[in-house]
Design a protein that fits this description.
This protein is of the alpha+beta class. It is about 50% helix and about 15% strand. The chain has one domain: Arc Repressor Mutant, subunit A (Orthogonal Bundle).
Length: about 100
């Protein structure tokens, strides 16, 4: 699947410049690639795995996830208290947002 131009043209500027959260943009791109880019609905990973895969610190991943969830760009589901989360990427600018 091809990356939606809105992600670069609008979302990047919004997260990096306005929110001053480049790590959130980087994490969104990574999760987009693992889900929509691969034709999947969700991607399962621990915080440590996300940190390792993106080169971010675990605390940066946690803060970025909070920001992305608050903005409705990512949602997470956990099957149990000790299991890794499954992340779903949203594109609210598209009709239906999924």
């Amino acid at each position: 699947m091809q990356l939606d131009p809105h992600i670069i043209d609008t979302l990047m500027r919004d997260l990096v410049s306005h929110d001053r959260a480049p790590s959130a943009f980087l994490l969104y791109l990574f999760l987009w690639r693992q889900t929509r880019g691969e034709g999947r609905d969700a991607f399962g990973a621990s915080l440590a795995e996300l940190a390792s895969d993106t080169g971010l610190s675990k605390s940066s991943v946690q803060n970025s996830l909070r920001r992305l969830k608050r903005r409705g760009l990512v949602s997470a589901r956990r099957q149990g208290p000790t299991s890794a989360c499954f992340y779903h990427v949203h594109e609210p600018w598209r009709r239906g947002g999924r």
